[in-house]
Amino acid sequence: ATRNSKISNEFYCALLGWKSEIKPMDGMEYTLFMLDGKPVAGMLEMNNEWPEEVPPHWMIYFLVDNCDSTANKAQELG
Prior knowledge:
- This protein has 78 residues and is α+β, with helices and mostly antiparallel strands.
- It has a single domain (5-76), classed as 2,3-Dihydroxybiphenyl 1,2-Dioxygenase, domain 1 (Roll), CATH 3.10.180.
- Helix content is 28%, strand content 28%.
- The chain is built from two helices and three strands; from the N terminus they run αβββα.
- It has a three-stranded antiparallel β-sheet with strand order 1-2-3, with helices on one face.
- A hairpin with a 2-residue loop joins strand 2 and strand 3 (38-44).
- It is extended and about 40 Å long.
């Protein structure tokens, strides 16, 4: 999540060798970052609905086969 998607897009593509694709999503543009033709990250621009005290940030998502068993395993492992 960024307050300037154009600059952030240029930065991450130059730094990490990513390509970007802009996709429409729920009334906004979502930037999909690609590496070797596969999606590796995404970016959205923080609009006026985001409070000023919320800084630009990364949100991490995990894909698992079964949420319940993965959550149980995480609890077992502390």
